[in-house]
Amino acid sequence: MAVDVRTTSVPASATPGSRRPRPPWAQRLRSFALFGAPGLLVYTCFVLAPIAISFGYSLTNHNPFNPPTRFVGLENYRLLFTDSEFLTSLRVTTILTVIVVIVPNVAGLGIAVLLDRKGWLYNALRTVFFTPMVLSSVVVSIVWTRMLDDEGLFNQALRALGVDQPPGWLSDPRLALYSIAVILSWQMLGFCVVVYLAGLQGVPNELAEAAAIDGAGPVRRFRSITWPLLAPSLTINTVVLLITAFKIFDHIQVITHGGPGTGTTATIAYDVLQTGLVANRQGYASAMAIVMLVIIAVAAGVTLRILNRREVNL
Amino acid sequence: MKDARLPWLRPVVALVVSAFFLVPLYMILVNVFKQGEKITQSPASLPAPPTLENITGLLTRTDNLFWASLSNSILVTTLSIILLTVLSAMLGHFLARSRSRWARVAMLLLLSGLMIPPQVILMPITQVLRALGLMTTLQGLVLFNVGYYIPFGVFVFTGFLRGIPIELEEAAAIDGASRSRIFWRVVFPLLRPATASVLIFLGVWIWNDFIDPLVILGPSQGTTITTGIYRSIGQYQADFGTVFALMFLATLPVLIFYLFLQKHFVKGLTGGATKG
């Protein structure tokens, strides 16, 4: 398989072998300059250095339209944790992430089990479910806005069914966040389906058949055989969903602009750019960005560790 | 296993679930061929009679919105994925074959780049680009794409390289081939499946990218096709005919690309999820 890291190791290359002599110093430098340096240079300029600059700014009150820039130590970080706007964005992002980690994971597993058969119908449906993955978030956001608007498709249908005052899916401050969660879940569902289907196809048929002969029903077979063997798929889906949901920005920018009301759908990613590029409080926004980076790294690291532990090898 | 009882149940349930799932895609398709005012009045109805007005209107606009954004998108995406493939294949090969401690450090730094949200680095990026004189230029956007997406390329290539025996390269070295020659003549051709994954995924991601071109190209300096859609909902609030036509035409190339290369998409995605 194309990017399998764990299983395709060929013994010869898996142990680079201390018996091989290291090439001379000058030759190693030359191959670094030719092969390693160009990529690392661009990565350093456009990712590593910006993170360092962000960290530097986070210790200042930098605002390009309000000089001079002063060093303020950890003041920005201290402010963050008493800033109700930031705390709201943290809460909003957390709710969204929890929903989006769970819904496409569960629904995706269900649909994958449903589609785990051979034949043209199932092949075609697989294609259908994956399609949203190649759509731009902007397109997804606009189409869903046409559906969930006060006068959109959903409410027209509800009125036709006799509901007098259908809910404002995107205009009600209590509902908008959940509508966004549904939209992102829809977009990510196909990814989970494809990953689970690949996992299901790796479950040997003989195991399930043997268990069936021993009298295990379908539920029991799923719980004791299929589900444990799907652990690697669960890991991939959960980590990808976690990172995607936590950094959600496009949908907020296109659909709600953080509203309705104040900050009911303003995620951290949205807040960072609003504070930094619209309000120009770049020092403060940089502190937010660094906190965001730390949370995402810790959350992804912990999740990976927990889920990797329960993966079994056949 | 076979579905013993109720053999019709599975296809019926599968079709019903898919029908609900498909509603948003159906929305795009029918509304492209509908008159503007009907899009808000009856969003779900079939376009009767269908009209090509929206599409022709968009293609012949005097401000050239569609053609200008399309050529920007094509240029940025093509240049970015070519540069990314070459640079990440070379870097991936260098790191996979190096035995130095520093190579492992670099690998770790690159892999952590896989989860860095663009919002964290966009503010300093504008300063880096301004210092290089590349802010609000397509070249600046391409360079940013290369830096931001190189971790993915390296991740795919190093994973794949682990399955290619080093003996091949050693044999070529004994025959007197230089490192560059070995890479381009022996290694790179073997990396074809990995190259396909990298080109496909990065192509789709960069084509659909929204916030990076929005910030880097800036408000006045032209748009890519995705930021063009976003601008068109702000400017022409009522004119959903244009918006749907633009969304349709922006999606069409990726969709065709996806339908033809489906197998590679799935393979690239599930490489790590399956055993064997």
TrEMBL record, chain A:
Primary location class: membrane
Statement: the UniProt record of this protein carries the keyword DNA repair: no
Biased composition (Polar residues): 1-16
Membrane topology: Multi-pass membrane protein
UniProt region (Disordered), positions on chain: 1-22
Places the protein is found: Cell membrane
BP GO annotations: transmembrane transport
Residues covered by the ABC transmembrane type-1 domain: 90-303
Cellular component per GO, a single term: plasma membrane
Keywords annotated in UniProt: Cell membrane, Membrane, Transmembrane, Transmembrane helix, Transport
TM spans (from-to): 32-57, 95-115, 127-145, 175-198, 229-249, 284-307
Family statement: Belongs to the binding-protein-dependent transport system permease family.
Protein name: Sugar ABC transporter permease
Species of origin: Planotetraspora phitsanulokensis
Automatic annotation (TrEMBL), chain B:
Membrane topology note: Multi-pass membrane protein
GO biological process, one term: transmembrane transport
Pfam families: BPD_transp_1
GO cellular component, one term: plasma membrane
Family annotation (SUPFAM superfamilies): MetI-like (SSF161098)
Signal peptide (UniProt feature, chain positions): none
Transmembrane segments: 12-33, 74-96, 108-129, 141-161, 182-207, 240-261
Localization, UniProt: Cell membrane
Organism from which the protein derives: Planotetraspora phitsanulokensis
Record's protein name: Sugar ABC transporter permease
Family that this chain belongs to: Belongs to the binding-protein-dependent transport system permease family.
Domain ABC transmembrane type-1: 70-261
PANTHER family in the record: ABC TRANSPORTER PERMEASE PROTEIN MG189-RELATED (PTHR43744:SF12), ABC TRANSPORTER PERMEASE PROTEIN MG189-RELATED-RELATED (PTHR43744)
Domain of life: Bacteria
Record keywords: Cell membrane, Membrane, Transmembrane, Transmembrane helix, Transport
Protein's UniProt keywords contain Cell membrane: yes
